[in-house]
Structures are given as C-alpha cells and as structure tokens.
Amino acid sequence: MTTTYGEGDDFPEFEMETPDGGTVTKADLSGKKAVIFFYPKDNTPGCTTEAKDFSALKAAFDKADVSLLGVSKDSAKKHQNFIAKHDLTVDLATDAADGGLSNELGVWTEKQMYGKTYMGMVRSTFLIGGDGQILRVWPKVKVKGHAEEVLEAATKV
Question: 100-138 in b/e burial notation, b at 16+ Cβ within 10 A?
C-alpha cells in the first residue's frame, strides 16, 4: 500500500469532529509541526497500544512543539470512551464515515482477513511541517517502537 500523498506534498485541507463536539482543521495545526496518525479502531489491542504510546510521549512532543492527532472513523462518543478508559492525552478526531481525509490520503482501502474483503484503515502516520507540507510518511505502521521513532524524526526535521 502506498499513500496518495508523500513527502514534499501539501497535506490536504480537512475538517474533522473532535470528541468534545468541536472540530479540528488543517489551519488549527498550522505554524508548528504535527503528527497525524491513522488507526483502525478504538479499543482494539494494537490501536490501544499505539494511542497509549503516543500519550506517554505527549510531553516530549509538546516540548518539541509538535502537535499530535489520532484519527479513525470511530464516532466522537466512542473516542470519548476510548480516552476515558485508557487515560489518553493525545487529541483524537473522527474522519467522515463516507469519504473523508483517510480516503483522500489512500489509507482507507480494501483489506482482507480470513478470506473476506472489507474496507478498513491502514495504520499510517504523517509528519507535517508548520507550512502544511508533508515531511515524512510511515505507511503500514508496526506499533512496537513507532511513537518513539516518530518523536525522533519530528525532533530532527
């Protein structure tokens, strides 16, 4: 799987719902680096580990002046429960059920499991510069050590 956007491209405009009923847009993240990580589903083992790993490093990301945003197609209510259950400190957003940012980026795609084909989120992370340009892409992320790798990359560029 390759994303439809890569390093050097301008990250697309977006507006997504936040768990508190507000919205987050590309403009909200401008002016400093941002990490946007896409994950399949709240409260599943890999997604929980990833969100907890990013939460554990949030102070280091803040110190490096890097915003964090986790994105799935789960509802704002599910995000609220996910945050509360696991004491998450990272910001989360809900991508549109039909279409949305994940479709545009190519991370919402056809997947297969147990011989069945379905649409799903491919765990992917984007590091974006303060000017909105993509600095780095991690497609098909493996969770173990990922948050640390992203933090190291974010502090070097």
Answer: bbbebbebbeeeeeeeeeeebbbbbbbbbbeebebbbbb
Q: How far apart are the first and last CA of the chain?
A: 25
pLDDT of amino acid 111: 86
- CATH 2.60.120.620 for the 15-156 domain, yes or no: no
Given a contact cutoff of 8 angstroms between Cβ atoms, the answer to whether 71 and 102 are in contact is yes
Q: What gap in Å lies between CA 6 and CA 15, rounded to an integer?
A: 20
* Sequence ranges of the domains in the chain: 15-156
Angle between helices 45-56 and 76-86 (to 10 degrees): 70
Residues with catalytic roles: 47
- The CA distance from 153 to 147, in Å, is 10
Instruction: Tell me the average pLDDT across 2-14.
Output: 88
pLDDT of residue 2: 58
Within a 10 A sphere around the Cβ of 59, how many other Cβ atoms? 10
